[in-house]
Amino acid sequence: MRIQSTGAFPIKSGEKKRVFSSIADLGHRLEAAKYVIDPVTLQVVYLAARMQKPIIVEGPPGCGKTALAQAIAAAGDTVVERLQCYEGINEEKAIGKFDSALQKLFLETQADHLQRDWDAIRGTLHTLDFFVQGPLLRSLLCEKPCVLLIDEVDKVDEGFEALLLEILSEWQISIPKLGTIKHTTIPFVLLTSNEVRRLGDPLRRRSFYLRVEFPTVTREAEILQVRSTTTNATLRRVIAGLAHALRGWQMEKPVSIAEMLELAQALEILGLDDITPEMRDILLPLVAKTESDRKRLLLRDGFASLVYDSHRYAQEVAEDLPETDISGCRQIAS
Questions:
Q1: Is residue 328 part of a domain?
Q2: Based on the structure, what is the number of domains in the chain?
Q3: Bridging pattern class, strands 55-58 and 131-133
């Protein structure tokens, strides 16, 4: 959903800052983006937008960290520039590199002028016109402020963290042969971490911090209410109960929020309005994604006990979930 606004994030350097008009405004925009947010996270996101501060969002895989970046982008009517981190990632992947083939083609077209205008031609070769931009550079040069998602930053080494510090401190990038590229706009920066490695203190000092865990049964039921197409409220509560039961089993790969949304969609497609022990073989491919997890759920009465727990947890969820309050933030049980 594209939401028209007078501006969501700080805009070009030297111009008057424009942010969400209030916490309530941000809350309403996130609700329109179908994102269920708690009051603390809402306030931290609002402050980060106003103060141009990055946010480190740390927690287990699958608990909705990436979805927060996507929702903020939707709320601000902008795009996400995503840098997917991995072990061994280098500056070329993050910032970009010169297009040597394009440079060579340009030189061929200027063959008659090389001796006379070499200095000018060489200078032209080392400009942004011949540079393939990576997500970090694109985020600083966006005409309209974007959301910069630095995903799974815990997989990079300390050297790469140092590279990020220049961007997050000065909103600029130093590139050999190009010099220092200053920002056109300042992005809203979200760094996610699955805690593979502890992030360095300098990066933490420059950022706000949010700790994210898997949702409670009540909150997951509300997420299903907002984001799934399932109209059966009882089934939504049972699915939320199943998610809680599965995560309580300490599985090798705990089910994510996105996987439970897919499960709701699958049950709807199959025309099923409940979860029973007899559905084990149908549901295993959707919730058990490793051999060890599959074997555990195939144990005698293993899946049946999960189904029992799912219905028990579902009974803890109120039949009428809370409505949105005037702040635009859903009141969710902690």
A1: no
A2: 3
A3: unpaired
